[in-house]
Amino acid sequence: MRLRDEAKDPKLKEMFDNRQTALKWILVTCFGYLGYRNAKFGTVDGHIGVCAFGRDAFLRAARISEGRGFEVLHGIVDSLWLKKEDATLEEYGALCKQVSEDIGVPLNFEGRYKWIVFLPSKLHPNIGVLNRYYGVMESGKLKVRGLEVRKRDTPKFVYNAQMDMINVFSTANNSREFMQKIPQALDVVKAYRQKLIDGDVPIGDLIISKHLSKNPEHYKQHVSQVIAAEQLIKEGSEVHAGNSVKFVFTHSEDKRHERRVKAAQLIVEGTNPDTKRYLSLLYASAANLLSFAGYTTQSVYETVTGQNQNYLLGYCQKERELNG
User: Given pLDDT bands bounded at 50, 70 and 90, which one contains residue 270?
Assistant: First the structure.
């Protein structure tokens, strides 16, 4: 990271950044395999030891930061988010140097945020969680974790909508401006809702990809990816554990479960997507982004439609039951 930060050539900066990212994921993978019971060189004691050393270093870094007048806002594994009124870059640099000397591991200052949102727990709204946040740094770099735009099974329609909402917020220079942009972000939801209702969303943007953790016949529940896998098997395809299955939610008067989903490879002209289902996904993604302000899937629906009805909640509950 030091080489990346010192590089003046954009290509060199990108190369060093890619290298540090690759090294990071190599270490993450090695750490994971330490605790994997089937790993050839796995050792649970080693895994526990790494966690213990990590916690010790993390807590020491937090105490040193607080001793220098910083408030610890958030922390996870190898990162600390700190706050100190009018702190200079030199103060952050001095803190990194002291922590690095104390724990014996180089600590880097990544940058300052214009604003950052730590999202609350879905079960306990008054408690923040470690792995769901988004924010914009002074450099303009966007950091997002735990949202739909980071998940592989998010359809492009929902991805684009949530990304456009985040882009609205990204123009804010501070938390006050950020809060003022909530209505504008909800306007994005309204626009995407109307596009879907008008039939202006390509069917390809509604495709969802789900991973099969086991062979289709071993599932006890007929979840959507299993239904799609069975459709492909009937057509002569081989589908096994480890495969990803792509499908769309479809609308049909036939209530049988196999009519609720269509494998992407079997989509034909005239395939009718389940508009209500995709609207519920859209509202849920917006509620996730705005949960810090108390928004729920139902309240997002009521805000963008101007209606106060419970049919959407009933629909979402029904779909959850059908999908196990």
Answer: confident
pLDDT digits (tens, 9 = 90+) for 155-208: 999 999 999 999 999 999 999 999 999 999 999 999 999 999 999 999 999 999
**CA distance to 45, 108, 149, 150, per residue, from 167 (Å):** 44, 27, 12, 15
Q: Which of the following CATH numbers is that of domain 203-266: 3.90.245.10, 3.20.20.100, 3.40.1820.20, 3.40.50.10190? A: 3.40.1820.20
pLDDT digits (tens, 9 = 90+) for 117-139: 999 887 777 777 878 999 999 98
Alpha-carbon dihedral sign for residues 309, 313, 314, 319: positive
The structure tokens 């990204």 sit at 170
Hey, is 243 helix, strand or coil? coil
- Of 116, 94, 219, 234, give the one whose Cα is nearest residue 170: 116
* Tens of pLDDT, residues 49-60: 888 998 999 999
Asked whether 286 and 165 are in contact (CB, 8 A), the reply is yes
Name the DSSP letter for residue 273: B
Q: What is the DSSP string of 192-242?
A: HHHHHHTT-S-GGGG-EEEE-SS-GGG-SS--HHHHHHHHHHHTT----TT
Give per-residue burial for 18-31: e unless 16+ CB within 10 Å, then b: eeeeeeeeeeeeee
Stated pTM of the model: 0.83
